Amino acid sequence: MNAPYCLEQAGQKKDLTMENYLFIGNYADSDTNESDRDAENLGVFPTTPIDGSILQIVAMNQTDTNSNGGYGDSELGLPGEPASYDLGAGTVTTAPDMTTGANITVTLGDGTTRTFLALLVQMDNGDTFLRVRTH
Predict the structure, then answer these.
(1) I need a surface site. Which of 70, 71, 96, 110 has the fewest CB within 10 A?
(2) Are 91 and 85 in contact (CB under 8 A)?
(3) Distances from the Cα of 17 to the Cαs of 5, 39, 53, 58, 109, in angstroms?
């Protein structure tokens, strides 16, 4: 689902988007140095299969607070732009700490595999999501 729209709020134009992401777990901080564009600790993410019982499709509302057409993570000393989602215990509002492209291999029910380029997003609180573009 991808439904961008604009909202006038207190005289500020904010572009908002709701998209579905796949929650893959909560992991230790992968981006320990916010003064650069690197994720210094990508080893916190699994390289072996993830327990499917934790996977959850989540609608995420993102806000483009600086109206630059994208949703920024906290890099080069700038704050990440807010996002809200609910994993089942109530709405969480936080910001992305790290985003990067990742090759993801999925094993289908028949045992075959497919590999996708996905957006890997880790929030300030460690919640980590995947987003695969289907168009």
Answers:
(1) 110
(2) yes
(3) 7, 25, 27, 13, 32
Residue 41 is which amino acid?
N
Per-residue pLDDT of the chain (135 residues; tens, 9 = 90+): 333 333 334 444 444 567 899 999 999 888 777 767 777 778 888 877 888 888 999 999 887 777 776 666 777 677 778 889 999 999 999 988 888 888 888 888 899 999 989 888 999 999 999 987 655
**Cβ atoms of 96 and 78 closer than 8 Å:** no
Tokens of 124: 């300030």
Answer whether 129's CB lies under 8 Å from 60's CB. Answer: yes
Assign 3-class secondary structure to the chain.
CECCEEEEECCEEEEEEEEEEEEEEECCCCCCCCCCCCCCCHHHCCCCCCCHHHCEEEEEEEEECCCCCCCCCCCCCCCCCCEEEECCCCEEEECEEEEEEEEEEEECCCCCEEEEEEEEEEECCCEEEEECCCC
Per the structure block, which two tokens stand in for 89? 């215990």
